[in-house]
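Worked example

This section walks through a single chain of length 513. The input is the sequence exactly as stored; nothing has been trimmed or padded.
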Amino acid sequence: MTQVDSVLTEESMSDLADSRAENREALIAEFVDTNPDYYRGQFARIGSTSRFSWTFNVIAALLGPIWFGMRNIWKWALPFVILETFGFIQLARGLFGDLGAEARDRISQIQGTLDFRYQQLEAAIKNNADNVDVFRRTIESLEGAIDGIKAEAALAEENAIWIALFGVAFLIVVKLAEGVIANPALENRFSEWLSDRSLPSGLSPVRTAVSASFVVLIFGVSIIHFAFPGTLLWLADFPTDTSIRLTAIGWVEAFFEFVKTSGRGIFFSISYGIRVLLDGLEVLFVSTPWPVIACFIILLTWLSAGVWAAFASACFLAYMGLFGFWEKAMTTLALLGTAALISIALGIPLGLFCARRPRLYAVIRPIMDFMQTMPSFVFMIPVIAFFSVGKPAAVITTMIFGGTPVVRLTVLGMRGVPEDIREAAIAYGASKWYLLTKVDLPLASPSILAGVNQTIMLSLAMVVVASLIGAKGLGEDVLEALQYSSVGQGILAGFAILFCAMILNRVVQGQRD
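Given that input, the structure is written out below as tokens.
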């Protein structure tokens, strides 16, 4: 009976293996849609080894990026479009392009100057002027430059055949790479399709048309623009009208003027609140005797990050004092503290509120993306328009740039709290306040403190930029050094800013560790 059972088991396993093989062959045929026998053999060869399998797909090599686009493998199609476009451009430039056109344009420009110098020379000779020799040397120099450019143009035209050959060789290399990569890329796409059948498979007429049209358009426009410059003028300059920009500028200025006039009271209240907090911190950091502030910072660093961090902070503070940066460093800390405190006070509650409300966070996240990606000099313009120049405007600019990390990392930390722990707390009768203060916040605190640290560091990075709109402190020294090329002053003030950042980083990061 044992032998019989063993034979039956082997037969059933063989039948199961055959069934799986037939099923896989059917799936490959469904996925590739064309020439399934070829791809069955290639996929089996690729899957039989963990190393890269050297195969070559002739159709993929001939069609190039069109084939990859037809198969919806765009991560390879787009790089190959760029590479083939470069090769076709070199080929067209070598065969049909006017490689000496740029040199001849330079010659015509110099020729105009040379004609003018000839006129000056004739006038100088007629008047027996003293600068006749000067004009003659200038003319000789210009004529020499023209001869050199003519030789350069001739050499460029002689090298046209080599540029064309380089384009051909480059295209051959790219085509070989496309043929080698095609089958492994398609097999990888097949594996993804097996786990997610919603992915496109087969050959779609729409996808084929889009791929072919896109590639032909890129090739055609690029070749015409680079190989035959000036043929289609609208390729070089986008067709537009100056009145469109002027009208848009008028609308934007009218909108900002309306908002500024309508919200004058709101902007004044915001500026007044920032000014009160900023003045309080300046009294604390600047007016308080330096030994008190120094001892407080050193003690705080020691409690947060240890003895060695406290010793480093003492050295950094001594550097600021000895080089005369103490008052400016404290002014910078006051400005930074104001921006960071407001950002943290608004950011953490907002992050807690958005953590359990995905729809709200989906609305706020693009706004934060805009705040972080917009260059600081751009969003300084509306800030100055609404709040004028000065320290309140500098604080608001710093908040816009550095206030988003605390929101993002608070949301990340709250969403990272294990659900089973929250469910256990709720099962034992925890209230919402207890759940927030005793479960969510303690477990999310590392991420939240990392957000606080990032907000402080990004705020400090705005010190120099904020000095452009009236903020005092160390950024003012760096700005003056840039304006007057004072290397020493800029380096010393830059080190002072660096040491402020290191002290704050150890205070916050040490507590998180």
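What to look for: The CA atoms of residues 257 and 468 lie 23 Å apart.
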